[in-house]
Specification:
Blueprint: H1 2-31, H2 42-66, H3 75-103, H4 109-136, H5 139-147, H6 150-157
């Protein structure tokens, strides 16, 4: 239980850093080159860009700190899985923003931030933590890798 709490705290810290990057870049882009007055889809495009930057930062932090004991030698495969889960989390946030902005008509900066960076963030964070822990950095996958003999490990890395 203590390991889970430590892991959750680290995940939260990494996520907070990613959140600061995400919110700052989103609002900077939304207020300038990707404002709705400049580009109708500007808020959505701004959110995609800001989230991708946050995903990169989060991957580095989670791989080398939060789940460091569960990282795999297959860096490319792990990166692809992390990206897939992160994109799923991003789509949750984008859906919240899209519904709020385009379906419900809440188009203010505050409404966009509440939809994308509060509601979407909470739902997306729960989704990401569950899938990072159970799939990308699953202790079972790490244990299975360690159980392979050296010949099989070299084959598995290829």
């Amino acid at each position: 239980m203590r390991a889970l709490i430590t892991q959750l705290a680290r995940f939260g810290t990494v996520g907070l850093i990613g959140l600061v990057i995400d919110v700052a870049v989103f609002n900077l882009l939304r207020a300038t080159v990707l404002s709705p007055e400049e580009l109708h889809e500007g808020p959505v495009v701004a959110k995609i860009i800001s989230t991708i930057l946050a995903i990169v930062v989060n991957w580095i932090g989670n791989r080398y700190w939060t789940f460091r004991g569960h990282g795999r030698s297959q860096l490319l495969r792990e990166g692809v899985e992390f990206a897939a889960v992160s994109v799923g989390g991003m789509l949750i946030g984008l859906l919240c923003l899209w519904v709020s902005h385009y379906v419900l008509g809440f188009t203010s900066v505050l409404a966009d931030n509440l939809a994308a960076n509060v509601i979407g963030l909470v739902i997306g964070t729960a989704f990401r933590f569950a899938f990072y822990r159970l799939w990308v950095y699953s202790p079972r996958r790490t244990a299975a890798r360690e159980a392979l003999d050296p010949d099989e490990q070299s084959d598995a890395v290829r």
